[in-house]
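User: I need a structural model of Substrate-binding domain-containing protein from Alsobacter ponti for a docking pre-check later this week. Nothing fancy, just the predicted structure tokens so I can convert them on my end. Input:
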Amino acid sequence: MRAGFGLILGAALAASAVPGARAADLKIALIAGKTGPLEAYAKQTETGLMMGLEYLTKGTMQLGDRKITVIVKDDQLKADLAKTLLEQAYADDKVDLAIGTSSSAAALAMLPVAEEMGKVLIVEPAVADAITGEKWNKYIFRTARNSTQDAYAAAAAIPAEGEVSIATLAQDYAFGRDGVAALKDALKAIRPNAKVVFEEYAPQTTTDFTASAQRLFDALKDKPGRKIIPIIWAGQHPLAKIADLKPERFGIEIAPGGNILPVMKLYRAYPGLEGAIYYYWDFPKNAMNQWFVTEHVKRYGAPPDFFTAGGFAAASAALAAVQKAGGTDPDKLVAAMEGLTFDTPKGPMTFRKEDHQALQEMYHFKVKKDGKDDNDLLELVATIPADKLPIPIRNKR
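Assistant: Understood. Predicted structure tokens for Substrate-binding domain-containing protein:
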């Protein structure tokens, strides 16, 4: 833990011993898509949030003389419901700040509520660029990576020399389309030798990828140099179905991107595949992540995952913000959070002042050939520092 946040938090915990009436609870709402295809993401976010609060308060679940209360609400991945639940959390439950949600579409619906109610919303894990872009407002902070960070990391994992042709496969909604647009921008910025020559979008419910694969193969098969299909997909992953159609006969590679461990178990059948990922339990080397991995294995029989780390990061951001602001006044929180650096299992993150996006490192991975179990999947090729990911500022400030 960094000295600054550690000293502040330690002083606050010590203050809890001072006699007198206990202050009002520190209330946090977590809104997550616990029903539907992203249920695993929501469960991980909640687990990570609670483990983060536990670690940062040394198990007391108390900050200073304020007991921490977390109210969890299921938006069922429905944008209208997410909006209503956030309104209720702010107005009826009187939460001091909120965290959420799993779906980018639902998160986008929540943004105006935070502005109207004048209260902080920490976006985790939704990634659509518009959240900290054109739909952003000053009460929005995001610990999750955005589509552009994913894209710059994916671009950084592509060879910097030689001709590279790319055909993308993505889901036909905000997450997928933002991801492809961001990848194209990232390639122009840091990998001008690589070009997107074809874009394939499929509904989220797609199960038969034969037609999509044929269009992708046709677009790439006659191109010179490296030929790569990056897959931008949330939920049930199409890697195996694309790979079964043997793209290698055309010299085509697949870049599946990072995902949660249950999905990445599919990757074991394709050793040598490369991509970029937001978090993998074995990559960060710090005391916080060591505790996180050890405790998560002890409690759940497996290491922490992609979105578990995100929930932990949101917990750290929330507590660091309250400490720096000296309370939960919304405008003081906003001022405190702009430029705030806070510790997470993957290392320090910093909220960029201009758009409140958390700047953070990413990882270039290769699928292992000889992992010892289903969770020992990736080897680290390179850590991609935050300053090597020149994320554009796209908000309306």
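Before docking, keep this in mind: Residues 3-145+283-360 form a domain with the Rossmann fold fold (CATH 3.40.50.2300).
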